[in-house]
Amino acid sequence: xxxxxxxxxxxxxxxALVLTVTAIGAPTGETSPEPLLTTVPGxxx
Length: 45
Hints:
This protein is 51% helix and 0% strand. It has 45 residues and is mostly helical.
């Protein structure tokens, strides 16, 4: 019974966190116009 109660409390906390983040929304800002390098640049020919 304690495990069931702990699971319910954890689920409620996770749901509250998700709803809070959803209500706040994404932060405002701009993305960088330059692409990110995913590999090490090689020698320039």
